Amino acid sequence: MKIPTIETLFKITGVLEESNLGYWLDGGTLLGITRNGTLIPGDTDLDLGIYSIEWAQNQALFERALAEAGMTFNTTNSRKAGISYSPNGKLEWIDLWKFNYRQRKYGDGLGEYYHQAWGGTFTWPEQHLKTLDKIVLLDHVLYVPHDPEGYLTVLYGPDWHTPKKLCKPRDYANWKKNVY
Predict the structure, then answer these.
(1) For a Cys-Cys bond, which of 24, 27, 86, 154 suits 47, CB 3.0-4.6 Å?
(2) pLDDT in tens, 93-129
(3) Beta strands in 4-54 (DSSP E)
(4) Is 90 helix (H, G, I), strand (E, B) or coil?
């Protein structure tokens, strides 16, 4: 598998915009761009967040635009969609994490966005994803969560500025194991 490139990031975000899907840089992609101004060297995929409700409304349009861009729609489930792209015969992988909205359990009238992965749930306060911010990277406008540094603090903890290898779900500050 090839390490994803900035050009692939620009290509997939263009397809998302063409398909009327709101997106934002997420996970390691957001971390690298925010911390270093580029993708993290050695990261094996691109991470983007999308709203699950928009996905349900625009999936067919997205799949057509994806095919026209030479990208392959590989998987979908309730948690994410997987996209592969093979420029020059080298496979690159893109995760589109599907985020849902719900009222928090605390009865305070506030909501949260969440997605599920690795047998658990990641959650963020609604202010990070209710509206999105824009950044410019190499003359391309990209969307990021409102207050990207706060978003990264929720995901990785207050020391997100310090590079470290995350290997297990419990390494993330906002992941909680699902209890059935």
Answers:
(1) 27
(2) 899 999 999 987 666 678 999 998 888 889 999 999 9
(3) 23-25, 46-51
(4) coil
